């Protein structure tokens, strides 16, 4: 790798880390905004075709992952969310929300097709509220928000998370709940 390319990569990573710190600090402690969910698949959690996010806030913490059907980093982390949704079943709710139609990264059909292609079974859907990404500070894809059972946001992470990072986040969420 050339020195110029290494410097650009280091600058990009620095900006990403700084953005994560700012986003997380700005959202920490805030109440998670309510929004309508249009269900793609229930994952044993979503009990209607259309429901409000607030109806899920009853007893279990939520790992809310904003993704898009044509987002390569989203695709990369979804299998880890799938594995951990099964590992922590009954302890946390993993909920994927497709915001591709609002971010120009895919249609609802693209989102459904990605779930099917990757054999993702956790709760997933989309919304018809175009302000949703702004409400949650989604500045890049994917974005993951950790929410306590009472609806308090404890952390927001911008960008791809590894399985180890997701598991550590779930552990933090369980401790905070």
Describe this protein's structure.
- The chain is globular.
- The longest helix has 25 residues, at 3-27.
- The chain contains six helices and seven strands.
- Strands 2-1-5-4-3-6-7 form a seven-stranded mixed β-sheet.
- It has a single domain (3-176), classed as 3-Layer(aba) Sandwich (Glutaredoxin).
- Mean pLDDT is 88; it is low at 8-26.
- The chain is an alpha/beta fold.
Give me some keywords for this one:
alpha/beta; 7 strands; seven-stranded mixed β-sheet; single chain; 177 residues; globular
Condensed summary:
By secondary structure, the chain is of the alpha/beta class. It contains six helices and seven strands.
**What is the 3D form?**
globular
Percent of residues in helical segments? 40-55%
Mean pLDDT: 88
Distance between the termini: 44 Å
Quaternary organisation = single chain
Sheet having the most strands: 7 strands, mixed
| E-strand count | 7
Strand order of the biggest β-sheet: 2-1-5-4-3-6-7
CATH topology: Glutaredoxin
Low-confidence stretches are 8-26
Domains (count): 1
What's the SSE pattern?
HEEEHEHHEHEEH
Report Rg: 16 Å
Give the CATH class: Alpha Beta
CATH superfamily: Glutaredoxin
> Given the helix and strand composition, which structural class is it?
alpha/beta
Task: Report the total helices.
Answer: 6
Strand content: 15-25%
CATH architecture: 3-Layer(aba) Sandwich
Secondary structure topology:
Blueprint: H1 3-27, E1 36-41, E2 50-52, E3 62-67, H2 72-87, E4 93-98, H3 100-103, H4 108-117, E5 123-126, H5 132-135, E6 143-147, E7 153-158, H6 163-176
Parallel strand pairs: 3-4, 4-5
Antiparallel strand pairs: 1-2, 1-5, 3-6, 6-7
């Amino acid at each position: 790798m050339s020195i110029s390319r290494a410097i650009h990569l280091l600058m990009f990573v620095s900006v990403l880390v700084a953005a994560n710190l700012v986003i997380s600090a700005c959202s920490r402690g805030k109440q998670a905004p309510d929004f309508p969910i249009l269900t793609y698949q229930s994952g044993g959690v979503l009990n209607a075709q259309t429901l409000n996010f607030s109806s899920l806030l009853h007893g279990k913490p939520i790992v809310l992952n904003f993704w898009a059907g044509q987002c390569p980093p989203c695709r990369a982390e979804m299998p880890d969310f799938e594995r951990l949704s099964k590992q922590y079943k009954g302890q946390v709710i993993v909920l994927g929300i497709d915001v591709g139609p609002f971010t120009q990264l895919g249609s609802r059909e693209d989102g459904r097709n990605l779930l099917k292609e990757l054999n993702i079974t956790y709760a997933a859907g989309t919304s018809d509220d175009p302000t949703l990404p702004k409400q949650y500070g989604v500045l890049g894809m994917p974005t993951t928000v950790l929410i306590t059972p009472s609806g308090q946001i404890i952390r927001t992470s911008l960008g791809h998370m590894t399985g180890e990072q997701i598991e550590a986040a779930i552990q933090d969420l369980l401790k905070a709940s």
